[in-house]
UniProtKB/TrEMBL annotation:
The modification 4-aspartylphosphate is found at D51. Residues 124-224 bind DNA. InterPro entries: CheY-like_superfamily (IPR011006), OmpR/PhoB-type_DNA-bd (IPR001867), Sig_transdc_resp-reg_receiver (IPR001789), WalR-like (IPR039420), WH-like_DNA-bd_sf (IPR036388). The keyword Metal-binding does not apply. Residues 2-116 form the Response regulatory domain. It comes from Candidatus Cryptobacteroides avicola. It comes from the Bacteria. GO terms for molecular function: phosphorelay response regulator activity; transcription cis-regulatory region binding. This is Response regulator transcription factor.
Length: 225
């Protein structure tokens, strides 16, 4: 899961970033209104942790911007302004949850996983395609009822495709989604090719009836055989 933290308190932002990365999330940060808008216009996220009081503008305006973009992204408002009016306005604008400062990281992680579960059909937080089942909470891939061991990035790549079966995915978009927006500093995509090769091999060896098909000159897409 890729998360954008919009928080201007550097100490809190750093603490949240380190803790959530340990939980296996891909984390990016913005510390003011304009940098948050810039990132949201260029990159895609599964969840945004959004402070209300920000330099340059309001977090509630960022929330409105997200909803106008019509993207499937969960938003959790995180603010020291623990007032009913702010909470109600945020939820009315489309926020998925509200967490007041100070808070424990364990509660934040639980809230993130909770809104992610609710965003899945029927609250079933697992991705199914063909005879493969991907379980984000346990980091397990099951093929025909048997577990298939995956490395962390292999799991993240497959999860990205399981969320978009049949969709053509550009390799640069995939790299940014899985490795974060610092990927633009990389010289080439050899690391993606290596991870993809191993993942595709493991799916074949496990007897999966799905495959990540290479589309020459464009990227990849997940299909049923």
């Amino acid at each position: 899961m890729k998360i954008l933290i919009v928080e201007d308190e550097s100490g809190l932002q750093d603490m949240m970033s380190r803790a959530l990365r340990k939980e296996g999330f891909v984390i990016e940060n913005a510390d003011d209104y304009h940098s948050a808008i810039d990132k949201l216009d260029v990159y895609t996220y599964d969840c945004v942790l959004l402070d209300i009081m920000l330099p340059g503008g309001s977090g509630l305006d960022i929330l409105s911007h997200i909803k106008k973009m019509d993207r499937k992204v969960n938003v959790i408002i995180i603010s020291a302004k623990d007032s009913i009016d702010d909470k109600v306005k945020g939820l009315e604008l489309g926020a998925d949850d509200y967490l007041a400062k100070p808070f424990h990281i364990a509660e934040l992680v639980a809230r993130i996983r909770s809104v992610a579960r609710r965003s899945q059909a029927g609250g079933d937080f697992a991705f199914r395609f063909g005879n493969a089942v991907l379980e984000p909470e346990t980091n397990r891939l099951m093929v025909a009822g048997k577990e298939v061991p995956l490395l962390k990035k292999e799991f993240d790549i497959l999860k990205y495709f399981m969320q978009r079966p049949g969709h053509l995915v550009d390799k640069a978009v995939l790299a940014e989604a899985v490795w974060g927006d610092h990927i633009d500093q990389a010289d080439n995509f050899q690391f993606i090719y290596a991870q993809m090769k191993n993942l595709r091999r493991k799916l074949v060896e496990a007897g999966a009836d799905i495959e990540i098909k290479a589309v020459y000159g464009f990227g990849y897409k997940l299909i049923e055989k």
